[in-house]
Amino acid sequence: MINTTEFEKRIGVIFLNKSYLTEALTHRSYLNEHKDCRGHNERLEFLGDAVLELIISDYLYKQYPDRPEGELTSFRSALVKTESLADTAKGMGIGENLLLSKGEEDTGGRTKNYLLANTFEAIVGGIYLDQGYEKCRDFVYMHLLKKLPDIIKNRLDIDSKTKIQEIVQARYRTTPVYEVTNEQGPDHDKQFTVVVKIDNKKIGEGIGSSKQRAEEDAASKGLEYIKKDTV
């Protein structure tokens, strides 16, 4: 089970109602092996996603009054994309504290980017219900917004799909192709696997809760492959 006290200290939030934290850290698969468990984190993820977007949008709007809408949207997307949230979640130790089924754990569930990103959003949702918007804002500022200066300075907001398309067209004079190789789970909890190819050669594979997220993850892996210049 979760050592809530240690984890709460690590993330900088002491929950008034511990059940919100437990629910936020509970993956759907856990319920298959623990029938006494009441709920999983998908509803909190839904709520947290909306709260997170509002917090970041409000911050960007006030902090960068001279930036056009398109750039603000791009900065926000870079902050909340699966890879960014997963990286933040890893730094917080979320993976070690997840409640997963044995099967999910055996397949690397504690390190899956989409799962960690979803859990981060669920924790935001749990904080919102437990202590309100301002506490959520403090949490997001502490853990996520510190990435923003680097994103803006190095234009890391330019997404991986755009980057890989520019590189592939310039270097190989072709266009990367994305293929969905697997879909699993119910409609409300889909998991997509996508591969990206150059001239029918697989250079990256990604997983996500939507085709768009899976394609972005695959593009990130493809960029790593291209950097090795082995295509």
Strands, helices and their partners?
Elements: H1 4-11, H2 18-24, H3 30-33, H4 42-63, H5 69-80, H6 82-92, H7 94-97, H8 102-106, H9 113-131, H10 133-143, H11 148-153, H12 160-172, E1 177-184, E2 191-198, E3 201-208, H13 211-227
Antiparallel strand pairs: 1-2, 2-3
Helix pairs in contact: 2-9, 4-5, 4-9, 4-10, 6-9, 9-10, 12-13
Describe the overall structure.
By secondary structure, the chain is mainly α. The chain has two domains: 4-153, Ribonuclease iii, N-terminal Endonuclease Domain, Chain A (Orthogonal Bundle), CATH 1.10.1520; 160-227, Double Stranded RNA Binding Domain (2-Layer Sandwich). It is built from 13 helices and three strands. It has helices at residues 4-11, 18-24, 30-33, 42-63, 69-80, 82-92, 94-97, 102-106, 113-131, 133-143, 148-153, 160-172, 211-227, and strands spanning 177-184, 191-198, 201-208. Strands 1-2-3 form a three-stranded antiparallel β-sheet, covered by helices on one side. A hairpin with a 6-residue loop joins strand 1 (177-184) and strand 2 (191-198). Helix 6 (82-92) crosses helix 9. It is globular. The N and C termini lie far apart (45 Å).
Task: Sum up the structure in keywords.
Double Stranded RNA Binding Domain, 231 residues, mainly alpha, globular, three-stranded antiparallel sheet, 60% helix, 13 helices, Ribonuclease iii, N-terminal Endonuclease Domain, Chain A, 3 strands
